[in-house]
Design brief:
Blueprint: E1 3-9, E2 12-22, H1 23-38, E3 45-57, H2 60-72, E4 81-86, H3 90-102, E5 108-113, H4 116-123, H5 127-131
Parallel strand pairs: 2-3, 3-4, 4-5
Antiparallel strand pairs: 1-2
Length: 135
């Protein structure tokens, strides 16, 4: 069973997904993102800590559906949104890279990174801001 936690720090939606990533958890993740985005008028970048995903039970159609749902949330000409996935294993790297590939050519600029220093640099924030998020 998987879990999802989130909070907004400054202009970054920080989220942590753990355990089994399945269609239900992916849907919960997207619903919460949409809810958080609707509550603000400024761009919110994303920091997704997916290091503790230990199983993936998503079909390609499930992942495609998540990507398409996220893409429909953005209007053309909207400001670029940065999304960083912090990974630790080939499993969570692979699923994040597939999502990145499905959203290529959109306002999303997604990076999948193993090192927190690289995540902080990509998002343009101090590492301590995202390293020890208290969910």
């Amino acid at each position: 069973m998987g879990s999802y936690q989130t909070q907004i720090i400054n202009n970054i939606i920080c989220s942590k997904l753990t355990g089994e990533l399945n269609a239900t958890l992916a849907s919960e993740w997207v619903e919460k993102l949409e809810e958080q985005e609707a509550q603000t008028t400024h761009t919110l970048h994303r920091f997704h800590d997916v290091r503790d995903i230990n199983a993936v039970h998503l079909s390609f159609d499930d992942l495609w559906g998540v990507a398409q749902r996220r893409l429909t949330a953005y209007e053309s000409g909207q400001e670029e949104t940065l999304s960083a996935f912090w990974v630790s294993t080939p499993l969570n790297y692979g699923i994040a890279r597939m999502y990145q590939a499905l959203t290529e050519g959109t306002p999303f600029k997604i990076e999948v990174l193993y090192k927190i220093e690289e995540v902080a640099d990509f998002l343009g924030v101090d590492q301590t801001l995202i390293e020890n998020v208290s969910y």
